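Re: export button greyed out
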Amino acid sequence: MSSPTSRAFATRGEILAFATLAVLLLAVLPASMEIFRLNLFGKYLTYAFVAIGLVLCWGYGGILSLGQGVFFGLGGYCLAMFLKLEASDPEATKIQSTPGIPDFMDWNQLTELPWFWVPFESLGFALVAVVLVPTLFAGLIAFAMFKRRVGGVYFAIITQSIAAILTILIIGQQGLTGGVNGITDLRTLKGWDIRTDEAKLVLYYVNAFLLLGALVFCHWVLGTKFGRILVAMRTREDRVRFSGYDVASFKIFVFCLAAALSAIGGAMFTLQVGFMSPSFVGIVPSIEMVIFAAVGGRLSLLGAVYGTLLVNWAKTTFSETMPELWLLAMGGLFIAVVLFFPNGLAGLWQSFRQPLMHAIRRHAPAGSVVADAAPEGGTR
Amino acid sequence: MLDSRPSDYMLNVEGLTVSFDGFKAVDDLSFYVDEEEIRVIIGPNGAGKTTVLDLICGRTRASAGQVWFRDQELTRLKEHEIVRTGVGRKFQNPTIYEDLTVFENLEISYPSGRTVFGALGFKKTRAVIDRIEEIAETIFLADCLHHVSGALSHGQKQWLEIGMLLIQDPALLMLDEPVAGMSPSERIRTAELLQTITRGRSVLVIEHDMAFVENIAHRVTVLHQGRILAEGSMDKIKSDPRVVEVYLGH
Amino acid sequence: MFEGYSWAELGSIFAMQGFAGLSLFSVLVLMALGLAIIFGQMGVINMAHGEFMILGAYVTYLCSNFFAENLPALFSGYFLIAMLLAFLASASLGALVEWGLIRHLYKRPLDTLLATWGLSLILQQVYRSVFGAREVGVTLPDWLMGSFAVTDMIEIPINGVFVMFLTLGITAGVWLWNFRSSWGTQMRAVVQNRVMAGAVGIDTERIDRLTFAIGCGIAGIAGSAFTMIGSTGPTSGQLYIVDTFLVVVFGGAQSLLGTIFSAFAISQSQSTMEFFLSGSMAKVLTLLTVVTILMIRPQGLMSLRVRA
Ligand SMILES: Nc1ncnc2c1ncn2[C@@H]1O[C@H](COP(=O)(O)OP(=O)(O)OP(=O)(O)O)[C@@H](O)[C@H]1O
Ligand SMILES: [Mg+2]
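Workaround output, generated via the alternate export path:
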């Protein structure tokens, strides 16, 4: 992109980076791991949806949400409700005092399916709800806050409180939600057993393709004028307003988009892991999701994916062997990323790559590499 | 009730009042600006000049009074709606997007694709680019189109902000101290700039630099403690003893 | 939810739950005071505030053990010393954290939030390594045990009353410090205009450090008070952080009176509802109400109007 007139959808470097990730996800990982590990990585990749959503709304838009677990969880629960109902047909549950309802309801002396569970007997409804319920909820929060010009730390605190409230609510309403254990023992999707190895492989690929699609979509969004307005808003909200934009609607949109992405991640989590529980909704998971994005680089979509994979892989590895150290390491990570690497892995990569590219350029024949020499803002 | 447009002026400010916890920063202020008029507001520090612009462009909500811009009453509209009626505002400190390039700054200010989906579908057509280049030419920044704007000099930032307003093609342009912090040569160029860009629109300028004011003003309004002290041509103002006492005498 | 109770019973229940709520109120006020000072002063959100409180609680626990073993004669007075030490410990740690972490992040409030969260994880792990994962409790001296019987249905625990008076005393002290001492004046000057305050010779860095330390120190005292109403574990502090934030924001970040009032409202409504609903639903309803109100009135209950 040597001039803005011919600004292409992506630079050569961006395409290369994306292709590398695609190869990694679609070929290298599946080829190099047995299904159990791959399924684990598939689980990590569901968090990557949340992380790229955070790149949009936090990195670019400056809106820090500490409640992304809420949307992840809602998306996951919507699908889990469908799967649970399918697993609870009267035949399979005939030993219960009320056959045909989920087991945890029976244990909690419910004798009838609660009204809000009923529509989840339809897969179509559940799939729509996966995206729509969290997005509308996000829209409601964002509308209330941003129309009144509340942002910054207030928004962070309110979203965090909502995460806390929802967790307490889910845990407290055992009969309706499965309580602290969540909705477990999910088996089939329209008769297709999701617990088999083949199913896990298929689901891994579905997840990877969805993630790559989401990356392309988000990249497109950031490349439009919308993306530049996000950056502009982060630093000069007033000026954007006085350029004739309704700032609140832009924030609402980007927050809803981040929520929708999280929700898709949540639903894929449910499918691949086979359950959903409040431990993915609350304060702690929500803020951990922020650190995934921060480690990867809050301004880099691809970085966020790598950050998510890396932190989760480290977490699994270390918390198995040295759980005490892991908490310290995690705490240190928060501090180090903020103090020393505010642009995360992507920032490190940039500062490593630039001298490298310069060196390559100097040796290349003149005129062959003018392509991506256009000055870029320090933010990208 | 003044519920319809009260007169033929382009901008009609009627009984505008705002009080901050009892302190009336602008007090029952009325004035009128003609089509294609350049009006300068002067007055000592804290007179309420910036606040008047804030009230017109919706940054501060009026406690009482009305602002009629052509057929529209502005005090009830939101900031972005006011901008869309054709009012542009430059701030006292240069307010630009420092992370973005000059080109991108102007592109954001280009008056189309202003809704969420409009911005997502916004196309950088030849017309848009031509317009941006034309404006950049006008504000002396054609050579720095692709520089990150945070690196510009103070004066250049002021020009960029003026350019960002210009590209909106507002019918009423409000400038808060456009030459503050500029070198003498930059001031001269800015005065020229204002002469060219004010053609075909009304301009409301706040300025302390009296030489500059004399140079551009059609009429002058002197504000003091939130009220109008005097109004009229520059010559009339200069000879007004009250104005000399509170402001020009210093 | 009130059916089945007579008026007299309802009256007693409200009174009893009201007094039970006072302990929660005290802890919330003390936590929130510290947080509000720090937030109001520097715009810094300290996510590790709960861990500073827990530090105070552990110090109190250590004191209680020390006196019981070595100076049983003075045991009845240990609590006052423990409070002082709790204050000092948390304040020193606060000063250290300000120096090592916070001062590099003043322009980036959202990042401070993440960094202090990291700090809280580290502190939790340190507590776990030093004191063990099990919760510990302190032995209260005799004069703090027991309760007054006001009527045959209403009983008031003495330690609750003690903590409440303590809270009132500290609040008054903070108020005096903020509005009457020259230090408080300097601090408020820094809040209003940092550059100008620096220009007239106020050492703004020192003021920041001291303020942060005081805020943390008050959290330490809150920890002392906390030992009277609950047992202390490595993660006990985290349970209070959301409530405390809501208290601060709900009260209006810069208003001392608002902080007290909102702590009162939140603790009392929770405590009262707890009698009629399950504890978790009481909490959900309380927090939900607060969040809803904040969405409608984001500036909190009491707020200063400042120029944007
Ligand atoms: N939002 C606000 N809250 C409280 N007081 C305000 C607010 N806005 C303006 N003021 C007060 O109103 C008065 C007028 O301020 P204003 O900025 O309009 O003056 P000005 O004429 O532009 O001065 P200058 O020449 O220094 O720019 C000042 O005393 C200012 O402190
Ligand atoms: Mg001014």
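The first strand of chain A starts at residue 188 and ends at 189. The button fix ships in the next patch.
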